[in-house]
Design brief:
With 268 residues, the chain is α/β, with parallel strands linked by helices. It folds into two domains: 201 residues, Alpha/Beta hydrolase fold, catalytic domain (Rossmann fold, 3-Layer(aba) Sandwich); 58 residues, no CATH class. It is 40% helix and 20% strand. The protein is built from nine helices and ten strands. An eight-stranded mixed β-sheet has the order 1-2-4-3-6-7-9-10, with helices on both faces. Strands 5-8 form a two-stranded parallel sheet. The longest helix is centred in the middle third of the chain and has 16 residues.
Length: 268
């Protein structure tokens, strides 16, 4: 039976769900989504693990609180509330960045990593991503949340090689709902995010747990390249490319993704 609730973590109330028994597995969502992006994984992985998914503060059902915060410290705080000392982490994109930061800050609390097209703290973004951020900010500042959402869908769901009509309509619709709700969330004026120091860039060789990096063949070419680099820099890493999907591989190719991750967990 799935359990839902709110955990008081570092001054915030974080919404979470958990199901299953066994070794803990924590799911960290992408920056264009919330914990609903794991709908095709949550029940599946709960058959073999104590599986937890949650909304980062400022996403889904977790409101952004005032003051200073740190995402990887929120991960530590949530695990403390749930009385989990050590877990496997599955992080996607921005969630992958948080997973890497957490693994560097708390190496003894991570037993394995699965990273989906992850970002890396301290890495310079590509010119394409900088241009996207500028266009997104312009649309947001003009109050055109639909346009800002569509920009995200084009880049992160469609990918650079496809038109919207070539993508599963359900996947596109759900990501659109999640992203627009992020834009609509009320954000206090006095927030300040504290980041990992020194950042993960240049430190990935410190990560010594089994690590699987997954990326879609239709994702941004810089994301594909970065995923391969990450797998090569950690001590025990490998990269798997899934054909026919862009950035949101776990949603587009859920059965294939679930099988690959399950196989990795069986042998790592």
């Amino acid at each position: 039976m799935s359990k839902t609730g709110y955990a008081s973590v570092n001054g915030a109330r974080l919404y979470y769900e958990e199901d299953g028994e066994g070794e803990p597995l924590l799911l960290l969502h992408a920056g264009v989504a919330d914990s609903r992006m794991w709908d095709a994984q949550f029940g599946e992985f709960a058959q073999g693990f104590r599986t937890i998914r949650f909304d980062l503060r400022g996403f889904g059902m977790s409101q952004m609180s005032s003051g200073e915060f740190c995402n990887y410290e929120d991960v530590a705080g949530l695990l403390d509330v749930l009385q989990i000392e050590r877990a496997r982490l599955l992080g996607w994109s921005f969630g992958g960045l948080i997973a890497l930061d957490f693994a560097l800050a708390y190496p003894d609390r991570v037993s394995a990593l699965v990273l989906g097209a992850p970002s890396v703290s301290g890495t310079e973004p590509s010119q394409r991503i900088k241009a996207f951020w500028a266009a997104e900010e312009k649309a947001f500042d003009e109050g055109d949340l639909e346009a800002a959402t569509e920009l995200n869908l084009r880049l992160w769901v469609d990918g650079p090689e496809r038109e919207a009509g070539e993508v599963d309509a359900g996947v596109r619709a759900l990501v659109g709902v999640m992203q627009q709700e992020i834009f609509e969330m009320e954000i206090p004026d006095d927030i300040e995010e504290r980041e990992l120091e020194p950042p993960a860039a240049g430190r990935l060789a410190e990560i010594r747990v089994p690590t699987l990096v997954v990326v879609g063949s239709l994702d941004l070419e810089e994301k594909v390249a970065q995923s391969k680099e990450i797998a090569g820099q950690v001590v025990d890493g490998r990269c798997v490319r899934i054909d026919g999907a862009a950035h949101m591989v776990n949603m587009e190719k859920s059965e294939e993704f679930n099988r690959i991750v399950s196989d990795f967990f069986r042998v790592e």
